[in-house]
Amino acid sequence: MSETASPTPGSNPRRVLCLIPARSGSVRVPDKNVQPVGGRTLLERAIATAVSAFGRVVVSTDSPDYARLSVSAGAEVPGLRPPALGRPETPIDSVVQHALQSWNYPDAEVMVLMQTTSPFTTPADLHAVVAALDASSTAGCALTVAPVPTAYASLMAVDPSDLADFVAPTLARLRTQDVPRLGVPTGGAYAARVVRLRRGEPLLRSPYCPVWVDPWRALDIDTPEDLERARSLIGGER
Predict the structure, then answer these.
(1) Sorting pLDDT into bands at 50, 70 and 90, what band is 11?
(2) Cα 64 to chain centroid, rounded
(3) Omega prior to 207 cis, within 30 of 0
(4) Where are the beta strands (DSSP E) in the chain?
């Protein structure tokens, strides 16, 4: 993963607030955010990428241990989030609102949310979601997206009774040559305007600006198998 530094988008170097959520207590992969990949923890990798892109990054965590590791890696941790925001079911919008309401970042115009579990996100990806949002007057959010084959237009969902239906019937009826470009969010990076987030609006709001990334970089670590695949792709030490 490249971590070559480049200028912060925009004239105000503090206009971008990059936030990394790092909850402790993951179940399927215990302590997922601090699992080592390529000689560093996922949290340290994400911090290094964000600092390279923007010069600063804020980590939102409920763990004092994660907070100490984050500060040591170069991140800001203004305070711990309350235990109620450290549960598995906690929505990301609650974490975003806590960061904006509890910590003082008056110059922030754009929030970039970066996930530790997407270890192939680059500084260029982070800049790109900001640039895409800046270039559109109507987009609600910009996000990294990986292309998928046109066959996904016929994607089906199976219900508990083992019956299936098309997820997007309108797309499923199209001829292959008429299917629009399709993509799936990678989870690596999102950008949204702070002014609307401060109004209590969700991070994800359509229409979206897709920032296309190579499919191999779309790995989102959610299971032990995903973690081992990331280690294999990055190589080097665990």
Answers:
(1) low
(2) 22
(3) yes
(4) 16-21, 36-37, 40-41, 58-60, 110-114, 141-148, 156-158, 164-166, 182-193, 208-212
At a CB cut-off of 8 Å and minimum separation 6, what does 238 contact? 36, 37, 39, 231
Between helices 123-135 and 42-54, what is the axis angle to 10°? Answer: 50
**What does pTM read for this prediction?**
0.91
Cross-strand pairs, 192: 111
User: What is the separation of C-alpha 189 from the centre of its chain, rounded to a whole number of angstroms?
Assistant: 4
Asked if the model's pLDDT at residue 6 lies above 60, the reply is no
Q: How many residues would you count in the chain?
A: 238
- CA separation for the pair 43, 170 (Å, rounded): 40
Hey, what amino acid is at 107?
D
Residue with tokens 């990678």: 186
Cα distance between residue 213 and residue 148, in whole Å: 11
Largest CA distance in the chain: 56
Helix, strand, coil percentages (3-state) for the chain, rounded to 5, are 35, 20, 45
∠ CA(235), CA(237), CA(238), 5° rounding? Answer: 95
Q: Is the pLDDT reported for residue 3 higher than 70?
A: no
Phi, psi of 52 (to 5 degrees): -60, -35
Residue pLDDT, tens place only, 111-140: 999 999 999 999 999 999 999 999 999 999
Token pair of 144 as six digits: 């990294």
Strand ranges inside 99-170, DSSP E: 110-114, 141-148, 156-158, 164-166
What are the tens digits of pLDDT across the range 53-107? 999 999 999 999 999 999 999 999 999 999 999 998 999 999 999 999 999 999 9
State the average pLDDT for the chain: 93
